Amino acid sequence: MSRVVVTGRVPEAAIEKLRAEHEVDAWPGPESIGREELLRRVAGADAVVSLLTERIDAELLDAAGPQLKVVANVAVGYDNIDVPACTERSIVAANTPGVLTDATADIAMGLILMSTRRLGEGERLIRSGQAWKWGMFFLLGSSLQGKTLGVVGMGGIGQATARRAKAFGMDIVYQSRSDIDPEIAAELGARRVDLNELLAVSDVVSLHCPYGPATHHLIGAEQLAAMKSSAYLVNTARGPIVDEAALASALRDGRIAGAGLDVYEHEPRVHPELLELENVVLLPHLGSATVETRTAMAMLAADNALAVLSGERPPAPIN
Ligand code: GLV
């Protein structure tokens, strides 16, 4: 029997699955486990099932000890894990790709609709109690049909967002490290371009790339200036891909029309200027937040941990 530490609350089915084979120490929450408590609890763990809010770095891996075999993140993004530090210590790192693709693409499409059709503004107006009535020019947004969606990072979530946007009548361009499956490109009518062209031609730019040193502030003042002044930026990937201060000024000065954000540069803090602006929709990192998706993510993370503990390659390894 091995010792599995779960760093935050996850659906019970995953805990039961782990408990059927191993001793499980699961942080009960609801608050996040503090760093000191986390370092204390991981000592002697054979597996750590981690949430994206916990930093899994060399200090933590050393605090766990040399018996640690696997870190299974309950997320597809793994910028919270120092993967080279895991590899150096022969620790397998794993994530949860696939199971949250549709849920996250739904939120991206939701943000595209919310920002272009000014749904957040409309909702806030009604709740404010201010007088309003239907008017020919009241809260006019911008239609999606015949417009271009630029997808930055054409992995599973980017493709799923493109599929939804196509169903709304949008044309698709994408920027990606590699070409996608030609059949999927043909189905979506998607054309691969470089980031400069994507920024210049897109009416909506949606971010779906992983976060890391190569994508830190990928979208900054210069890139925002390269977008059409009528365009919108949507981010459901990771906050620091966007220079939030530059985005706030671009939105304030009307250099782009609007934005929809689910993630933030210094999460959970939101840049104070964004909070003052009407032309940005702000969601609290809800990309994968459905009962079904969170359950599937936790089960996949449990499967990753269980596989490594029984000497097998996990279903979704990172390293
Ligand atoms: C959520 O943000 C994830 O990476 O799974």
What descriptors fit this protein?
319 residues, alpha/beta, Rossmann fold, 2 domains, 7-stranded parallel sheet, globular, binds glyoxylic acid
Walk me through the structure.
This protein is an alpha/beta fold. It folds into two domains: 3-98 and 291-309, Rossmann fold (3-Layer(aba) Sandwich), CATH 3.40.50.720; 101-282, Rossmann fold (3-Layer(aba) Sandwich). 38% of the residues lie in helices and 14% in strands. Helix 1 (12-19) links the parallel strand 1 (3-6) and strand 2. Helix 2 (35-42) crosses helix 3 and helix 5 (101-116) packs across helix 7 (156-167). The protein binds glyoxylic acid. Glyoxylic acid (GLV) is lined by residues 52, 75-77, 100, 287-288.
